[in-house]
Amino acid sequence: MGTETYIDSIEFKVQELLKEVRVDYSPALTKLVDDTVSAIKSAIDKIPEDLQVTADLAPGFVKDIGADKVEFKFKKPKSIEIGGSYSIRCVTKPDVNVDLLLRLPKECCHEKDYLNHRYHAKRCLYLCVIKKYLKSCPSIHRVEWSTLQNEARKPVLVVYPDAKLDDVPGLFIRIIPTATSLFNHSKLNLKRNNVRAVNTGDILQPTPKYNCSILEDMFLEESSKFVETTFSGWKELGEAVILLKVWARLRSSIHVHDCLNGFLISIIVAYLVVENKVNHDMKAMGIFRAALQFLATHPLFQDGLYFPPVDQNAISEEGWQGDEQHNSSPRVNLAFRMTSLAYPELEHEVESTLTCIGKCRAGGFEEIFATKIDHAAKYDYCIRLNLKGNSEVYALGFCLDDECWRVYEQDVHSLLNQGLSDRAKFIRVIWRNTHSEFNVENGLSSLDGEPLFVGILLSSVEKAFRVALMFRKFWGEKAELRRFQDGKIAESTVWKSEQWTRHLILKRIIEYLLVRHLSLLKKDIVQIVDQLDFSLLHGDKDPISYSGRLLGTYEELSTRLRSIEDIPLRISSVQPLNSAFRFTAVFPPEPHPLANKKVDVARLQNFTPFCVQSLELEGSGNWPMDEISIEKTKSVFLLKIAESLQNNWGMTCTATEKNVDVFMGGYSFRLRILHERGLSLVNRGSGHHQTKWVSSADRKLFVHSQHASMINGLQFVYPIFGPVVRLAKRWLASHLFSACLAEEAIELIVAYVFLRPLPFDVPCSQITGFLRFLRLLAEHDWAFSPLVVDINGDLTQNDQKEIDENFIQSRKAYEENPQNKSKAMFLATAYDKASEAWTSCSPNPLMPVAHDTSDGDPNGCMPAWSVWDGMPTSAELKRLVAYARSSANLLTNLISQNQTDPRGWECLFRTPLGLYDAVILLHADRLAYPRRLLFRSELDQGKHVAYGKASNLFHPFILPTDLKGSLNEIKSKLMVNFDPLRFYVRDVEKEFSDRLKLWYDYLGGDAIGITWEKSKKREREETEQEEKYPVELLRNVGELGTGFVRDVYLLKAPKLTN
């Protein structure tokens, strides 16, 4: 029953997809197409018979392809018939077009016009004549040039009808010339030379690509009839073609001129019928899978796909399979455009799709038919080469056997493949030449306007960042002779780099190769690698560079803690819980200069953050049973630990009732004890009656400990994971979502991108990983699907069932009583199957509350768990998803459109303040870390209701007058984890939480957004008082931040609701 339900679900989704993308062949559409075709025929009929046609109609084109003897007298086409997808009812939205096959008359061509591009020239001139007459037709809106599969020497006419249909906007008709029976097939044998300029000395070389280009036109009508006959009356076959088109179009790397197109897909499916790979009992998805299996086992690049088809016995007897490119048979390889550059990508996408069908939920429908695998999200490195006006591209001519643009693609691929070697899993080079303004009459020189695209999929981060062994001739001055650890002496290249700039090594290698071997200018090489690095810098350096010192200090402290012997129970383990230790903190703590005996810096930070350390003690049966007594006992242990650290190593420690802060190496470490009895109860707890005996402090520590351990392991497997998380956190904070999503939740969402990458590969660059994070946030169905993050791969089917039940229960509770706050975002892990740790909307003991004080800390510092306090409500999640979708689209465009202006990239982190009801602007020089501020916020709209000057009572840096004392005196003035923004947010929420909601950036923003909270309808007052209310309220909000608040603006007054 379960399997039947699963199959029915897939079939239902497929049918819904087909309804969405399949064109409705309505009477209106049929009439529009028929009328336009009739108008085209009428225009052609007006062309005078025997009109003299010369090269003057397209002098640039004729000259560029090197053709001669191109004059002819115009004759009417032998036939004009509709072909392509429209004829088999497989047109697939959004690209709605109709192919009109126009057979060239034999009288216009000489029997030897297959030589030296004469046929191509006459083909183009024939279309030039038709275009001239079509432009005067009143029922035709406009006529443009395009090309057949990006082949510049084979232009086609694109005709847009004047009438429009809402169901098919942008409908156009392509006029494609055919060459049925124009030439002798044997003259186009793939071993023959038909372009005399293709030679080596006096020896002519074969021109297989050129010959196939003509053969394609000769067999175009026949192959179209073959497809039409095969598909006639077979609905499922057409549906399978539509599914394959949707699948291919979503994958930009294979739906391109040198790989798959709609016509080739139709031919492949028709061949499946000929070879008895499909039958009438199969549904569309079955035929779809059969087509994928065919592509996986039939290497089109090597074996080709030949027309007319023959049975397998004939194939083996003729011996053409695998060697047809050199055979004299009058058959054409319809896959002749598929290149060695494209086929590995096709093979990989097919393999990935088949994996999705077998491993992903619901048969991988979402991954296969609803996930866009474009260049921006697929490749780790996206590069664009601006080659406009580069004469080196066509130095040998525009068109020989192949076109110069295709040859240049091969050259770039070969160069990078040799230079990057096993660093790259795939290198994709694509140069789309045709554009809407293309004017074939003026020649081919304008087809270099679009940049050449290079997409690189890394094999692994480790290989990408290592040193390369290459030859001196290839690397030039970069090569040097070096002795390696094993005693071997070899030529090598060395790319020196800081740890935090290792991702730039590949950029430097690629730039060096392209400049050295292709003579390109650096300004013409645009690589998408480091455009977002600015968001993670503190000053001019990435603070992640201090992580080594932080880890070293922690290791030393951990060793000292475990060696303490003058406490009743020894410390058995020490675990860091701060995100800095798992390399996911946006700004890891930097060592404070006061750790040095001599202070020689111009300015000293007034405070330092702390890192939480979880301590576990040896087991004992003498612990008290009630929670209060347990916590008091922990405090005594912490005091003894602090005393021992001070006595044995002279370390500075400060103690509060619940915490001990230890200062070491310029860092502050906060120690907390995880009670071993609480730990055992949590580990055993399969029912709520057991876990409720665990103290909230122990539960916090345990869950944080589990999370930290798992993320640490993930970071070890995927080195790029940390940078992606840091970008994600920075983005969320810059758009004022600090209160909406816990940093642990962010880490889990990013982890899902790495653990469940299908239909992609695991990202190996931070920009690619960040884009996929944004898309996941924007596209996941949060309302109806839990996000299950199985970090260690140990979730069983029973665990998955439990998670599903918990998710359904949470949604059911909300449906039964909307007053119950349901989890808007359900994140399930092995340690949290009910999504209680980081995403619960109800008051949660695992998360700090913004208005809590810090355990009685005399400095009034905030809780240690996280600077992120978030548990998103439905409204917050809706806003978050909208921002993620907008940013994902922007980032995709920045990557795809060759964006070099840094202001475009900065927009990803500039939040639109005009979308809030009110805005508070803070004094940037009074923020805890002024150098973390990305952009100073300004507002030029709304009503300015308050202004405040900066106070001298607080300053982020120690004032010069306070530096005159001794080192110990200066240390005594240092504040641990102090942040004025936290306290201001706490005060405002405590006072006005029922009337407004704050949106803020804990990482360094100087703006706070305000949205009005919906409240019950108040008694109506005078209009003047209603207008005065928000102004007075905002002034009170500003007064709470006197000396810290710069400006307060009212943008929209609150609305009364029932």
TrEMBL record:
State any GO BP term from the record.
tRNA export from nucleus
UniProt GO molecular function: RNA binding
Listed Gene3D superfamilies = 1.10.1410.10
Cellular component terms (Gene Ontology): CURI complex; small-subunit processome; UTP-C complex
Nrap protein domain mapped to chain residues = 98-231, 238-372, 377-519, 546-715, 718-845, 916-1020
Protein's UniProt keywords contain Transport: no
* Cell location: Nucleus, Nucleolus
Query: In its keyword annotation, does this UniProt entry include Aminoacyl-tRNA synthetase?
Result: no
Q: Which UniProt keywords are given for this protein, alphabetically ordered?
A: Nucleus, RNA-binding
Under the heading PANTHER family, the entry gives: NUCLEOLAR PROTEIN 6, NUCLEOLAR RNA-ASSOCIATED PROTEIN
**Family per record:** Belongs to the NRAP family.
Q: What is this protein called?
A: Nrap protein
What does the organism's lineage look like at the top?
Answer: Eukaryota, Viridiplantae, Streptophyta, Embryophyta, Tracheophyta
